[in-house]
Amino acid sequence: MKEIKIKSANETIYNFNAPTGLPVYMWVNHDKSNVHMSLVVKYGSTGINFKCSNNKYSVPTGTAHFLEHIKFHLKDNDASNLFYDLGCDSNAYTSLNETSFEVYANDNIYEAAKLLLNFVYDNYFTKKIVDNERGIILEECNSSKDDPSYQFFRETTMNYLTKSTYRYPVIGTEKDIKTISIDDVSLVHDFFYRPENMFMVITGDFDPKEMMKTINENESNRTFKNIGKVSIIKSKEPKGFIKNYIEVSNKNVMNTHGTYIIKALESDFKGYTKDEVLVSLRALIKSNFSITSDFYEDIIQNNIATKFGSSVAYDDGVFGISFNYVSENCDEVVRLITEKLKNLVITKDDIDRLKKNYIMNSIMRFDSIYAVSSFIVGSIIDDNKISENKYEILNKLTIKKINEIFSRVDLDNKMIAIMKKS
């Protein structure tokens, strides 16, 4: 069993590989009274095109989410009922890059760990199960049509990303859901629900040696056919937008909403890693536009906007600097953001404050078994290992590096979107 040290919080995470090769990560805290387990498949909604050996495959958008739903149906029972009988709660979610099956346990934790592994690996699918679940997922899909914020997000994302599969909704469209077949979900399960493409995270109050023994015994006789290397096929995202300005009408919205997005490609920052760019841009935007900034105070106190937020995201080789606001004078908000972006300032005190916040948040994270699990899952999905890379980058961050990275952002490569009441 290996030990992984988290320096910023002075914590230890244990790691071992099961006989199948499945990586298992454990964080133990005997002051807690429960356990959280996640069995994560490194396959999410964006993996609609993939290849194995010389063969290429495609499935409808939403297949990952559809498969997550039907996984709970077993041949003679429902996995949720089996966990309930053990005194456990179960759940699952699908995101852009992963599908996670979760269990919250107070009792029978070792039995729950075995059940989690067994039901996720189980490949029992029938056309009846697929057809029955289709109606439930269609209802979920249609319910979002009445949410103006979600619809505005979808409109802006589809305009912001022009080729990347990250532009599509996790659940898929109504058309996608209607076309997903048992062959599609079986194909994805066969190719991606395999130990080399999965990992397990367990946090809370348990004996790590007993847990390792339980998992190793459970997995000792499990075998998988060698199918070769499977990889997701990605489309190269261009720098521009479909349109630089879009206006959306919605009868359910009360106030005018606006979004201002600047788009940059990873290739714009040659010589810097993805994390160096992400940490630097986030530091600069946070220092100038966060809730504690002068910009935020002025725009809210002067009633130019009633809500304002900023963020920096990275998706599939694309960095997006986003500003979201609610205002009846969106043109003025756009003007103020544009002017401010030309005169951004960050000081050594700002950087030192960010470092302290990171350490404080890291320490506080280890007060929650869920937050620790989320940290481990996110780190592995992003970096394929538990990494404090962003913390190390933050420690070495300089004003010169931040300004050099930001100088490569084309501020004119932007999109403005407005949503008004129809």
Write the layout of secondary structure elements.
Elements: E1 2-6, E2 11-17, E3 23-28, E4 35-41, E5 49-52, E6 55-58, H1 63-70, H2 79-85, E7 88-94, E8 99-105, H3 109-121, H4 127-143, H5 148-160, H6 174-179, H7 182-192, E9 198-204, H8 208-219, E10 230-232, E11 245-250, E12 257-265, H9 274-289, H10 294-301, E13 307-315, E14 318-326, H11 330-341, H12 348-365, H13 369-383, H14 389-395, H15 399-406, E15 414-421
Parallel strand pairs: 3-9, 11-15
Antiparallel strand pairs: 1-2, 2-3, 4-8, 4-9, 5-6, 5-10, 7-8, 12-14, 12-15, 13-14
Any overview of this molecule?
- It is globular and about 65 Å long.
- It has 422 residues and is of the alpha+beta class.
- The chain is built from 15 helices and 15 strands.
- The protein folds into two domains: 2-232, Metalloenzyme, LuxS/M16 peptidase-like (Cytochrome Bc1 Complex, Chain A, domain 1, 2-Layer Sandwich); 245-421, Metalloenzyme, LuxS/M16 peptidase-like (Cytochrome Bc1 Complex, Chain A, domain 1, 2-Layer Sandwich), CATH 3.30.830.
- Helices cover 41% and strands 23% of the residues.
- The mean pLDDT is 94.
- It has helices at residues 63-70, 79-85, 109-121, 127-143, 148-160, 174-179, 182-192, 208-219, 274-289, 294-301, 330-341, 348-365, 369-383, 389-395, 399-406, and strands at 2-6, 11-17, 23-28, 35-41, 49-52, 55-58, 88-94, 99-105, 198-204, 230-232, 245-250, 257-265, 307-315, 318-326, 414-421.
- It has a seven-stranded mixed beta sheet, sandwiched between helices. The chain has a five-stranded mixed beta sheet with strand order 11-15-12-14-13, with helices on both faces. It has a three-stranded antiparallel beta sheet with strand order 6-5-10, covered by helices on one side.
